[in-house]
Amino acid sequence: MKILKYFILLLLTFTQCTKKIEKPFQPSIIPLPNFQNITEGVFLLSNNTHITGNQELSVVIDYFESYLKTNLRISPNSLQKKTQILFSIDEEINNDEEYHLSITKNEIRIQSKTAKGAFYAVQSLIQLLPTKNDTKEIAIQCLEIKDKPEFAYRGMHLDVARHMFSVSFIKKYIDVIASLKYNTFHWHLTEDQGWRIEIKKYPKLQEIAAFRDETLIGHYNDQPQQFDGKKYGGYYTQEEIKEIVQYASERFIEIIPEIEMPGHSQAAIAAYPELGCTGEKVEVATKWGVFDEVYCPSETTFKFLEDVIDEVVELFPGKYIHIGGDETPKTKWKNSAFCQELIKEKDLKDENGLQSYFISRMEKYINSKGKQIIGWDEILEGGLAPNATIMSWRGNEGAITGAKEHHNVILTPLSHCYFDYYQSENENEPLAIGGFLPLKKVYSFNPIPEELTKEESKYVLGAQGNVWTEYMKTPEKVEYMAFPRAIALAEVLWSKPEHKNFEDFKNRLLQFQDRLTSKKVNFANHLYEVSGNLGRNEDNKLMYSLSSATKDAQIRYTLNGNNPTENSNVYTKPIDINETTTIKAASFKGQNQISNIHQNRINLHKAVGKNITLSVDPNESYNAGGKQALINGISGSNKRYGDKEWLGFFGDDVTITIDLDSITTINSIRTRFYNGNGQWIYAPKKLSIKFDDTEKQTFNINNDGLLVDFQAKLKNAKAKTIKIEIPNFGVIPKGRQGGGYRAWTFIDEILIE
Ligand code: ACM
């Protein structure tokens, strides 16, 4: 008997020793905690872990237990109490979102003031766990974290009007942003192309405004525009909205519904023509853009919008209603006798005053319901509604003006927060609206504009990433565009600016991506993308250098036009460029190509590397390559003007002077202009060329199509300096996108041959 006992004991010991426990995850939390100290040892999480805590925190405890069960097949119970996880309220903590997380060998202790703080502790804790589990015990690294956010408003937006997404997808989106400690979901529910929230008092919103007859295919700039001929639409029922609001609240996400007014309202006017200024019947819009059909500031409209707000406030318990306010053309108001009379009656200055009257009146109503309004920065025009929060999107200016007037502001500038822009220069990127916003630029964002004093910067609540879905038909595409840029923004908003470090962030992102994969999130991965740069070495020789954002891979390249393979040249140092060359390169791990192919043709024409001067600077948003980009031998993208090869000038006439060092024979001068009229970009109508002191010659430009080629064929011209005058297209005709404003000019490489 004794021997048997001994044998069993031995067996037990043996199985315990050989039992496989995965090594703990190296802490790689995103957003980076304020304070984190890794200590000795591991905590073992298993079915024998006892989870307990303050009753007020039970919603978070339930959430965590359910997470463990669903994702890791761990169901803690109180029978064994081998280890313990304790959630407690700490009255000494004074920020609702703050938490302390202490992990020692026998206990995980989570302290917070509120359930919200405890929820953020759990999100950090989850990031210390594996994404899947085949063992009975999970080792968690012992450590100490004290953490709270830098900004109180941490938002992600989603436009469900241009394209609509299922309830289950909205929940998935909320899950991911909650895991990044975002606290706000801005739900863009109404647009020209569709009304997506059920309003029971107005059934035609569901019957008519929720559906469009067809949808634009391809890019808005494609000529001719084409349509799919398929009816598209839908809306969220009030029951579905309640379900989503509840789901979000369990994840401490407040939903801000956006009901657009007075612009972007063509769908509602299609359902109820009396809301417009002419009463004419219009269609729900089938393509993108800004439309003249806007609400008329009539009593009929105010009654309608107040009724809508009555139903909206019942559905959304949060503090804010977003009333839009952006991109409201005033054409209809200018031509309306009623509007002109109203301007006089209310002693307003002009149509901007009328917009201000519109917004202030709706603000008063919404305030009377106990809610605050948020509006896009155009609500500053004509005078700001007294209690409004400004969402600054056209740049930082709206935020600066708002904060200086002591209004709360939220930053969401095009330059750093528009996740509908391209994120890679690769030609194979899926179609996007335009622009260029790579991950690194998002990460570099500072939501406090430099122009604000310390006192004024207190009005900056935070920032938000915007996901406009004109070019995102599917959930997979939304995920591709939103992530990882929303991950970078999460760290911008939560972590201390002095702790920000992009290299470190990328390493943590590699781990976070596994979490996204396990949740089947189709994130974009450009971490190994190769980029190239043409420069001169100290001997003034042209060299092309290659680099990738992440170091632990090999870059391989070819110079003969073939795609790189695992046998191609390994990049170790900048490549000599002595002749016109096509470079193709990609990142490899062993035999596996892990990036897209980077491709560049370097055309060694006569101006490459010479001196160039410009009469005006390009706009700072479209000046990535600097003036040298015009004569660096590399042409811009055929699809996009936001790369570092195109230069963009807003409204200016431009004179370019190229100095060729010595008298040179010139047979041809070529360049290209971008002509994306939907983005206010127009090729010039003509240009002039002047060689040294000779008379200038003027050439007409046929500005058809998206890319306009220009070539001046010359018969043995000789010159040292070439002066090219490019007059701006001028004012965009009324009725077009940007009508009334001067056009942009985008210029590509100037090839001197
Ligand atoms: C906006 O992007 N029109 C706010």
Description:
The chain has 753 residues and is an alpha/beta fold. It has four domains: 24-147, Chitobiase/beta-hexosaminidase domain 2-like (Chitobiase, domain 2), CATH 3.30.379.10; 153-518, Glycosidases (TIM Barrel); 532-602; 611-752, Jelly Rolls, CATH 2.60.120. It has 17 helices and 36 strands. The strands form eight sheets. The protein has an eight-stranded parallel beta barrel, surrounded by five helices. α2 (58-72) runs parallel beside α3. Mean pLDDT is 93; it is low at 1-19. Acetamide binds next to loops. The site of acetamide has 4 residues, from loops.
Lay out the secondary structure.
Blueprint: H1 2-18, E1 35-46, E2 49-53, H2 58-72, E3 83-89, E4 99-103, E5 107-112, H3 115-126, E6 137-147, E7 153-159, H4 167-179, E8 184-188, E9 190-191, E10 194-195, H5 203-209, E11 211-212, E12 216-217, E13 226-227, E14 232-233, H6 238-249, E15 254-261, H7 266-271, H8 299-315, E16 320-324, H9 331-334, H10 337-345, H11 351-368, E17 372-376, E18 389-392, H12 397-404, E19 409-411, H13 414-417, H14 439-443, E20 460-465, H15 475-482, H16 485-494, H17 502-518, E21 530-536, E22 542-548, E23 554-558, E24 569-570, E25 575-576, E26 581-589, E27 592-593, E28 598-602, E29 611-614, E30 647-650, E31 654-674, E32 686-691, E33 697-700, E34 707-726, E35 744-747, E36 751-752
Parallel strand pairs: 2-3, 3-5, 7-8, 7-20, 8-15, 15-16, 16-17, 17-18, 18-19, 19-20
Antiparallel strand pairs: 1-6, 4-5, 4-6, 9-10, 11-14, 12-13, 21-22, 22-25, 23-24, 23-26, 26-27, 26-28, 29-31, 30-35, 31-34, 31-35, 31-36, 32-33, 32-34
Helix pairs in contact: 2-3, 4-6
Acetamide binds next to loops.
